[in-house]
Automatic annotation (TrEMBL):
Name listed for the protein in its UniProt record: Helix-turn-helix transcriptional regulator
Cited Pfam families: Peptidase_S24
Keywords: DNA-binding, Transcription, Transcription regulation
Organism: Bradyrhizobium brasilense
Alphabetized InterPro entries for the sequence: LexA-like, LexA/Signal_pep-like_sf, Peptidase_S24_S26A/B/C
Keyword Transit peptide: no
SUPFAM superfamilies (UniProt xref): LexA/Signal peptidase
Amino acid sequence: MAKQPKATRPLTHAQVWAALDRLAERAGLSPSGLAKQSGLDPTTFNKSKRVTGDGRERWPSTESLSKALAASNASMETFVQLLGDGARGGQSVPLIGFAQAGAGGYFDDSGFPAGKGWDEVALPATSDEHAYALEIEGDSMKPAYREGDIIVVSPATAIRRGDRVVVRTTGGEVMVKELRRRTAKMLELASLNPEHPDRMLDVEEVAWIARVVWASQ
């Protein structure tokens, strides 16, 4: 009796989107960063777009997938391999654009991510359960960070002189600087871009400060 071929299981919605997330991760990008680099609307690959308002699964089009592969210099064979990948060693952390970080509703009083509007990105594991990611926008942090780079911020990690930090002021301004000096009364911050001035802040002006622990470069 002839042996029956083993039935092939169809691809699932979750598998395809997980592979796209891994494709973005390999390129050091968030899903929205990959979409932008592919010449697509930045929200094309966002998790909020993967299911319609009435609960129907939305799949990436072949055109958007083709553009994503080209933008990340990956082949279809690579994508097929990503479809079969098991669980990744990293973790998913909340992600928003850097410009959004200064708006209200994204952080609590301790500087932990809160509220709605966050995306998600898979990055190397961190022991801080409150860690989050920011996507750099614009050229104000060159040459340290370029537009589209992602930085992981850990509110629980100890900060030392020379560390790169994210600082939010009580006025809602958010900046990435190098900590030059910290006293009980003031914060001295060095700019990452030589064309931008260093900053001196009174402690009363600082809402919170957190260390940058990883960057996609």
